[in-house]
Amino acid sequence: MSTSRFRSGGRDKCRLHMVTWNVATAEPPENLNSLLHLDVQPPTDLYVIGLQEVSATPLRFISDMIAEDSWSHQLMDTLAPRGYVKVTSIRMQGLLLLVFAKQLHLPFIRDIQTTYTRTGLFGYWGNKGGVSVRFSFYGHMVCFLNCHLAAHMNYALQRVDEFEYILETQDFDIYNTPHIRDHKIVFWFGDLNFRIADHGMHFLRSSINSERFNLLWGKDQLNMMRAKEPFLQEFEEGPLRFRPTYKFDRNSDAYDTSGKKRKPAWTDRILWRIKPKSPPPEDEDEQASTSTDDGHDEYPIQVTQESYNSDMSYGVSDHKPVIATFSLELRKYFDMQLVHVSPEGVWSADQDAALNYTILEDFMSSTWDWIGLYKVGFKSASDYEAFVWVKEDDVPEVNDVIQLSFNKDEIPLLGGQYVLGYYSTNIQSIIGLSANFQILESKRAVMEGLVPDNINGLNK
Q: How many CB atoms sit inside 10 A of residue 271's CB?
């Protein structure tokens, strides 16, 4: 295996599927297939799902700290059988942000960090604010920020102030991207709560019913604020060619028929920002030691929004979900895992099994690192069948081949398709995955009556 980290050329395309949805404390619907575009071709590489108003009563929130919330469970149950693994998640009261990736990408998602900022009710209860996830994707620094900003028509300026406060105060323990705007790409999304100003209800309804949405764009508060605020102008958004997603009667496509008769609005939005190129330094000597954008131009990334729409088929909330899909065309900084892991010989629960691992490149390894045995279709890094600690006495050198053993009592009796994953405690992610391999059904499984000893006339 080549030890070069850098690709000789060519660009790869990755498909990103993003969802924002204010779920208004509802439980998840049974079928999320439409929301996730599960049968799209080519298949999605990354899912990023931002929810607002996930049920957050104090008792419920405490129980969710112990066991994951129902939305996370439903999303994992839907995506795991299709080969998507939860990379990370963060929750702040009703705000929830989840990232899923196809299994093959896991070793190339590194430096994962999450944080949050409270803004609502003086920041005390956390009913408003932002949660973010940042990570390196094949060496490109990306950040996803899910926000729920102040409500009501008259608070457009406060919403802008809250967003600016979140941008300025969130920080990460990463030397080259300590703040949100240091990342090569930032996706800003959520229930941003901007309304449509000035127009009366009759004009609003008439424009929506005739699908002349462009008549409303000029009075959309976010569009108006972006025209005034330079820092907002750095963010891009696709055209709003879908019906405003707030406020609906539940289980209905009818806008608010209650006594309040709230005006329809595009409260739920997905925007993105490409980091501007650094201006060249004035001093030529300084230029010699400072490369534009940290030298990252050698490995560019291009973002193309392919679709931006709402899904009217879901009625559990008074908001409709908004979905955006993107093509990320990128040149990878590296395409080699930090650790090579492989099973050795035949695996079954009839005898102890062996595996080898080799560190291919220096990283901050730890004696607390471990190698997990995962059933193909696993949900997250903690969803292992069994694990072994890496060598405990000293950290191995690069290219040393280390052999470890799994006790036969920890190997699944019924066998199946499995994969080994090296989990780094410092990097907080799986940084090495073996190829999928077969664990054979054990003789003990027959003896213990887990399977019949005669299937289709064949003796086991």
A: 21
Q: Of 188, 183, 86, 83, whose CA–CA distance to 136 is shortest?
A: 183
For 200-227, b where at least 16 C-beta lie within 10 A, e where not — what string?
A: eeeebeebbeeeebeebeeebbbbbbbe
- Paired tokens of 162: 């809250």
C-alpha 179/C-alpha 166 separation (Å) is: 10
Which neighbouring-strand residues pair with 19? 49, 323
pLDDT at residue 396 in the model: 79
Integer Cα distance of 403 and 352 in angstroms: 13
| CB neighbourhood size of 283 (10 A) | 9
Is residue 109 helix, strand or coil?
strand
Nearest to 56 by CA among 99, 19, 22: 22
Q: What's the pLDDT at 428?
A: 87
Question: From its phi and psi, is residue 228 left (phi > 0), alpha (psi between -120 and 50) or beta?
Answer: alpha
Backbone phi, psi, residue 73, to 5° = -60, -45
pLDDT digits (tens, 9 = 90+) for 118-176: 996 554 455 799 999 999 999 999 999 999 999 999 999 999 999 999 999 999 998 88
Q: How many residues does the chain have?
A: 460
pTM: 0.91
| Rounded Cα–Cα distance for residues 114 and 137 (Å) | 15
Cα–Cα distance measured from residue 257 to residue 264, given in angstroms and rounded to the nearest whole number? 11
Q: What are the counts of helices (DSSP H) followed by strands (DSSP E) for the chain?
A: 10, 22
Terminal-residue alpha carbon distance, the chain: 39
Q: pLDDT for 269-315, tens place per residue?
A: 999 999 988 765 555 443 333 223 444 567 789 999 999 999 999 99
How far, in Å, CA of 417 to CA of 432, rounded?
17
User: In this structure, what are the phi and psi dihedrals at residue 280, rounded to the nearest 5 degrees?
Assistant: -65, 140
* Average pLDDT for 54-61: 70
Around Cβ 19, how many Cβ atoms within 10 Å? 23
**pLDDT tens by residue, 223-268:** 999 999 999 999 999 999 999 999 999 999 999 999 888 999 999 9
